[in-house]
């Protein structure tokens, strides 16, 4: 697009031009011309120029077939005083040309001069243990294409599934080398691609960077700048902290979809869930309380029991020293519960399926007990065939990537807006993350998988508006 603009400028002037240090042109340096300026220039058939960078060739000074107005516009470089309030009122005249050129150049210089050409990114060269394969690299700042925005990243979490992706054990595999972080981040819109509508430049947004399956490549978030589809951007109000905003698109959305669209749990019904102390688990508890749903919460440590009760869980079962089936029967009645969500799998997931009432269903959305396991037997959910058949129980999966692959972008943004409202109204509160600079990635990665870790690790960057 940039070269085409230059070509258009050349032909609109009816002359050949040589331009020195093209790399130094603002839009080159800034990787992409802001849509508003581009639209204005294209509408007028004009293009911005800078006196000392774009030099008409000597032989062209006598070039024929150039109208006097165009020649005047092309060769007049003296400052022009703007007279009227509307900068384009003289469009089509030499004065308008120069006024617009100067205005656009100023705007571009202002917007672009602070943007670096390169940035830091945390890149995995191949599949492997994250701390072994991740390297801090310098990469060029990417250029947004049509329909994309350039985002300056401010904060991005490290989810267990991000580490699963790097180990080659997740539901999709990116092409390696890959920038890590395939879930979400928050930042500010730095530029828009050609002819692109979207949030305003400088706006604070959440990027839902979960790759749709099936779907196109999505840039990793563990880098200072990334390009993202504008339909995956959700503006967020300033009063939401960076920590909250950067965790808004994955876990809260998962909790909302599980409780409402997937299981349609009704007020007064029991909902059984595992890993209740996880971020998703806590969000499920909060949402359930808001909707009048009662929760039975499974944790693996005695120390987490009081915490979950204090958090609002109606019942808490500790698998360290309690029988899950017996406790569910005592709580929900001998028939069992009709609805459950599980992110542990393995033997715990199997017990959850046994605790279901006839016709009940469990949605499996995670497999925490299989993490770092290599024994094939540890990667299963051993179901009792008779119970599944004769009690017509359903065990099915949920995966956000596939959900993004099946719903329309508008539907996805609608659900994300619902999450934003629930968070803004303080129905859902996302636990505060622990910030890490990119350089300390080994520490951050290790914290992400430490048992009983209180806070989710987040990579944080300055966004240019920090003091
Ligand atoms: N399918 C999807 O689309 C989707 C979307 C979002 C999240 N998820 C999944 O949801 C799960 C929770 O994610 P999160 O980000 O909320 O996690 P998180 O905040 O990092 O918390 C992890 C929790 O899991 C518990 N845990 C870890 N290993 C366990 C095991 N073997 N048995 C029982 N509990 C265990 C931990 O208990 P302690 O406190 O005792 O350490 C901790 O409470 C993950 O499996 C994630 O992949 C899936």
UniProtKB/TrEMBL annotation:
The keyword NADP applies. This is Zinc-binding dehydrogenase. Residues 129-459 form the Enoyl reductase (ER) domain. It holds the Pfam family ADH_N. SUPFAM superfamilies: GroES-like, NAD(P)-binding Rossmann-fold domains. Coiled coil: none annotated. Keywords: NADP, Oxidoreductase. It comes from Streptomyces viridiviolaceus. PANTHER family: QUINONE OXIDOREDUCTASE PIG3-RELATED (PTHR48106), ZN2+-BINDING DEHYDROGENASE (PTHR48106:SF2).
């Amino acid at each position: 697009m940039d070269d085409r603009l230059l070509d258009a400028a050349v032909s609109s002037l009816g002359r050949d031009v040589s331009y020195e240090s093209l790399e130094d042109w603002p839009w080159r340096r800034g990787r992409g011309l802001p849509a508003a300026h581009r639209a204005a220039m294209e509408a007028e058939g004009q293009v911005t120029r800078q006196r000392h960078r774009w030099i008409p060739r000597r032989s062209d000074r006598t070039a024929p077939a150039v109208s006097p107005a165009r020649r005047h516009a092309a060769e007049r470089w003296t400052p022009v005083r703007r007279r009227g309030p509307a900068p384009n009122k003289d469009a089509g005249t030499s004065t308008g040309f120069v006024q617009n050129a100067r205005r656009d150049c100023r705007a571009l210089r202002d917007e672009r001069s602070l943007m670096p050409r390169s940035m830091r990114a945390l890149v995995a060269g191949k599949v492997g243990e994250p701390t072994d394969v991740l390297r801090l690299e310098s990469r060029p700042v990417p250029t947004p294409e049509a329909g994309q925005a350039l985002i300056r990243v401010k904060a991005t979490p490290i989810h267990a599934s991000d580490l699963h992706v790097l180990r080659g054990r997740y539901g999709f595999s990116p092409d390696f080398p890959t920038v890590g972080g395939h879930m979400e981040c928050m930042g500010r819109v730095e530029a828009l691609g050609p002819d692109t509508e979207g949030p305003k430049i400088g706006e604070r947004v959440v990027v839902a960077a979960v790759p749709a399956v099936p779907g196109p490549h999505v840039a990793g978030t563990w880098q200072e700048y990334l390009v993202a589809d504008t339909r995956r951007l959700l503006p967020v109000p300033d009063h939401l902290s960076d920590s909250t905003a950067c965790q808004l698109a994955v876990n809260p959305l998962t909790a909302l979809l599980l409780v409402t669209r997937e299981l349609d749990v009704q007020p007064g019904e029991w909902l059984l869930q595992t890993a209740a102390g996880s971020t998703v688990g806590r969000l499920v508890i909060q949402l359930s309380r808001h909707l009048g749903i009662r929760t039975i919460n499974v944790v693996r440590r005695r120390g987490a029991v009081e915490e979950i009760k204090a958090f609002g869980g109606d019942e808490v079962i500790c698998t360290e020293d309690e029988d899950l089936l017996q406790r569910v029967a005592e709580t929900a009645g001998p028939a069992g519960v009709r609805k459950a969500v599980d992110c542990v799998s393995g033997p715990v997931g199997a017990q959850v399926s046994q605790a279901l009432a006839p016709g009940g269903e469990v949605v499996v959305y995670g497999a925490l007990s299989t993490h770092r396991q290599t024994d094939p037997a540890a990667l299963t959910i051993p179901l009792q065939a008779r119970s599944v058949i004769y009690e017509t129980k359903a065990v099915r999966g949920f995966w956000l990537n596939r959900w993004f692959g099946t719903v329309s972008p508008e539907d996805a943004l609608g659900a994300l807006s619902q999450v934003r409202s629930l968070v803004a109204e303080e129905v859902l509160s996302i636990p505060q993350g622990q910030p890490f600079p990119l350089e300390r990635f080994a520490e951050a990665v290790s914290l992400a998988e430490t048992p009983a870790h209180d806070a989710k690790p987040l990579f944080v960057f300055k966004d240019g508006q920090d003091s």
